[in-house]
């Protein structure tokens, strides 16, 4: 290449690079959630008919498409379910529903791309563990729903308790409708019933992990083929935070918790707390007694052990009516559900399952009407959750159904579709658990932080640095693979170097600001 | 008279090194095969073993019990691989040939044009927008084929090979009255068989092993390729086993395939390519030189 082309090329290169940087800058929304004005369609309909939906004249509604993305396995016969729904809603809503199930593992990525390329969907499942709610809100992917809810969703407003709305608010605005299911969070362990009978453990007296020690010793001695206690590299402390009274508002394995009942809202570093120290000391003790799998510190997934009923005591999830029958369907053995904390309502427990409306939606008001029907109309809910009677499920009695094998439609995740308490019971579930669950939600204590949402943007770097530290130490300490005497101080020290104090300060600052607005 | 030298120590060291290296490659695969023939309960009790304790074909029976989805994804994978490889090969070869012709004045800047994309790509979002909003081929088989049709690395590989064809050969063909098309099809392609074979394998590999495009663009269950089906199963199990502990969600893990079934799918997915590979081996020696001097 001669000199002139080189020069021209370098100029072109600089141009391209700077252009791409500018474009990259455009894509990021640095200023936190922007408040979009209500879309034109919404405002247009509002001026036309400022009435409640009951008096909406359906004959005037033209037929529109609604696309709904949620997590789960694609069902072979989803087409006939969509058809049945559209038929059923013909004179109620006049829509064409498109149900798009995306695997849980790729939902977040898929939705990010959809948002980047202009959306093209109306409804989406969003939560704090799949298709991240706060990230979406910060990028402005969702519509604020306050006005739409008032206008088109009287039944949702009637059904859901106030606490649910508190949890979904970001800067005072609601961006998603919480799905109505188990909200209260109670730490839980699942011992096998035959073993508690055999080794006479009275679960009524169990208040925490340490009460299992003598029982596990007996299991270890008497059952050489079983693993006494479940543990993996994910770490067990996350299943005991409620037991210790912590609200993990920043996220799992990030420093920063507040005690549920601390009216001063003081932010603590859970890894420096005496509770954490006593927990990892107990785990160390159990590890040396041989209660865990030998490879617990590197094990990613213990589902296989659960299925093989090899675990005397399983851990994880939350206490909920019917939880023991769910566990039984996995292990094929009777399992007890033992709560080791009080039930608490936290922000993270509620936003674990919510539905949002996309900013790109052409018919947000119709999407909201559809959601409203899901909370009110049992027939519609069961169509989505169970499919078509006689084709996808059989009725056993008025409220219980059984899936027809190879029927082609069984999403099996009722909690994705709005109001779970509208659904039939599955075979094996005790009728009445819905009412019990509602009671449990309503009786749960509310965390002092309910409604606070943390914005991690100012401390992104620190959180990333901390993540590399916790990835190294959490599996070792929480499976008891190393001596906490030596490694816990080392862990805390490395956390400090990674900026844990700065995270705590930032969290405190945001909480104080939030407190001032209340 | 025997003039063969005695094998020296260094030679044996090199042999040893490659033997060890090969073992590292082969053993994990043997494990996968072994697990797919093991009993699930054996794995839970004794862990993974190189020789299954009790040999059972249960995992394969379980998979082939409802083979519709599996066969369908096989067909998708095969179709995409065959069509994609054919299309990609012909376009790559033509482009590379044009670039390799020294009597074509635009070849330098055009080569740079191709080379540039090797270093800088527009990134994921622009290509996603192109496929979805401009070409409207998302959720079709084309979205699995188009993104890999021209890969700059393959073009440069082919160009390197074609550059060795002496210009005199082409000129003499011209004098004999052959047109450009005829020269390309009747002379250039036949003498570049090794390169074509190598490229065929490379491209087929990429199409066969690709799951990412399916992740991005495919919603329709009837268009899911084999590898994506496999990826989904593995990825889901991993994702859910970590997130089930964090929230108030319940997903029925008993419906997820067991360890042995997962490994059986892996075997079924890798199988065909394993059998194809040895047939291309002989062309590798010649075809895999990018602009280097051949011995």
SSE order and pairing:
The complex is a heterodimer of chains A (518) and B (295).
Chain A: H1 3-27, H2 40-48, E1 64-71, H3 78-88, E2 95-102, H4 104-116, E3 123-126, H5 133-138, H6 146-152, H7 154-159, H8 162-168, E4 169-170, E5 173-174, E6 177-178, E7 188-191, H9 193-198, H10 213-222, E8 227-229, E9 246-247, E10 258-259, H11 274-288, H12 303-307, E11 311-315, H13 323-331, E12 338-339, E13 344-345, H14 347-350, E14 354-357, H15 364-376, H16 378-386, E15 393-395, E16 400-403, E17 425-426, H17 433-443, E18 445-446, H18 460-478, H19 484-498, H20 500-517
Helix pairs in contact in A: 18-19
Chain B: H1 9-36, H2 40-46, H3 58-65, H4 68-100, H5 107-119, H6 124-134, H7 142-145, H8 152-162, H9 167-175, H10 180-191, H11 193-209, H12 212-217, H13 226-243, H14 259-287
Helix pairs in contact in B: 1-14, 3-14, 4-8, 4-11, 5-8, 8-11, 11-14, 13-14
Pfam family, one (chain A): SBP_bac_1
InterPro entries (chain A): Bact_solute-bd_prot1, DUF3502, SBP
Protein name (chain A): ABC transporter substrate-binding protein
